[in-house]
Design goal:
CATH superfamily of the largest domain: Glycogen Phosphorylase B
Number of domains: 2
Number of strands: 13
Oligomer: single chain
Number of helices: 15
Order of helices and strands: HEEEHEHHEHEHEHEHEHEHEHEHEHHH
Structural class: alpha/beta
Length: 380
């Protein structure tokens, strides 16, 4: 697997996806190798939960970090034994043609996670290159996987590519409630609104802070996540929150702390402008949280009928909807119950891994691909 920063994941949807997929494939008896950036994890262990980790250097800059590492990984894999070479995300996909051209014994997969060129942190040249990577991935990979129905439709419309829809999943919610973690963070159960996202402009956290500042509530706003080459934006968020002690920035969290935050929030807000399929959103739903999201299609396909939306980018509408949820806890509770049931029925990692294995086997044995791989989902 090529394109992710590495495992274990410290945040980021692609990294979480690769960790969940790779470790389960390894548990099922496959030999799985994941390319990792040397700076990403503090550990340099050769294996992680049965997955072989290959560490390669890169240039740690906003524009070169991913592409330099992908190039080195692509050159390295040419000399390895591999049945499947699986690229993740549209930036890394820009180089998969090298493996397709030279490593003819391998089948090249591309997972289309998100249309990253919509992200505000990228300039004009970077956005052009990301569109180029999308085109290379969709046109030159042997098989294409999309994580949302919206992307599946887009791949067909833009490239006439019949992609396999295999979504992200949500791991099982922790059954233990770590109350000591809440005490350490000076939080109370049901006493805060939660957002979990990278601190980058298209996640819309600035709009959430602006909306929260206009609402009269004793509940705190807890923001989990760090920036990614976005120091100026992070500083903007701190400036927006200045003077309000009830807005807490907790940085990246994992394990017990993250489970505690998901499990004890009043509600979960996801104001993003662009997504593939948010794992943070699925995890919040898995914990039975009532969710309020922006109205982009990728969010609506997950929460329609089980959650609430506001007009993307509209702080006024976000204020209105969030204030409604704060005044109607029974609506939040019912939405959370429905959300938990939907995730357990439709976004189950074990089913997702079995479907991916089936897709791999079809490719290796050159059998026609199954267009709709997950019967639980409505037809596209």
């Amino acid at each position: 697997m090529i394109g992710q920063k590495g495992i274990p994941a410290r945040g980021g949807g692609v990294e979480r996806h690769v960790e969940e997929l790779a470790t389960r494939l390894a548990k099922n008896g496959h030999e799985v190798f994941v390319y990792c950036r040397e700076h990403y994890t503090s550990s340099r262990s050769a294996t992680y939960n049965g997955v072989h980790c290959i560490y390669l250097p890169t240039l740690r800059t906003k524009h070169l970090d991913a592409i330099v590492h992908t190039l080195l990984a692509t050159l390295h894999v040419l000399f390895q034994r591999a049945d499947i070479i699986h690229y993740h995300a549209i930036g890394p996909a820009s180089l998969l043609w090298i493996a397709r051209l030279i490593k003819r014994s391998a089948t090249i997969f591309f997972t289309f996670h998100c249309q990253d060129y919509h992200h505000e942190k990228w300039g004009f040249i970077a956005r052009l290159y990301l569109r180029f990577g999308e085109a290379i991935g969709c046109r030159f990979a042997h098989r294409v996987i999309t994580v949302s129905k919206t992307l599946t439709k887009y791949a067909w419309t833009a490239y006439q590519r019949d992609a396999a829809y295999i979504p992200n999943g949500a791991p099982r919610a922790a059954t233990t409630v770590y109350r000591r973690q809440l005490q350490r963070l000076d939080l109370a159960a049901n006493g805060y609104i939660l957002a979990v996202a990278r601190l980058i402009p298209h996640k819309g956290i600035h709009e959430l802070i602006s909306a929260y500042q206009r609402i009269l509530t004793k509940k705190k706003l807890v923001i989990v996540g760090d920036g990614t080459y976005t120091d100026r934006y992070v500083q903007k968020l701190y400036t927006l929150a200045k003077g309000n002690p009830n807005i807490l920035f907790l940085g990246n969290q994992i394990g017990e702390t993250l489970a505690t935050l998901y499990g004890n929030a009043y509600c979960f807000v996801h104001p993003s402008h662009s997504e593939g399929l948010s794992i943070a959103l699925l995890e919040a739903m898995q914990y039975g949280q009532g969710v309020l999201t922006s109205s982009i299609p990728e969010n609506r396909e997950v929460i329609d009928g089980v959650g609430y939306t506001f007009r993307t980018g509209s702080v006024d509408d976000l204020v209105h909807k969030l204030d409604f949820l704060l005044r109607h806890p029974e609506c939040v509770r019912r939405a959370g119950e429905r959300a938990r049931l939907r995730v357990r029925r439709m976004y189950h990692w074990e089913t997702i891994v079995r479907t991916t294995e089936r897709c791999y086997q079809e490719a290796i044995h050159a059998t026609p691909p199954t267009r709709i791989l997950l019967p639980e989902y409505e037809q596209i």
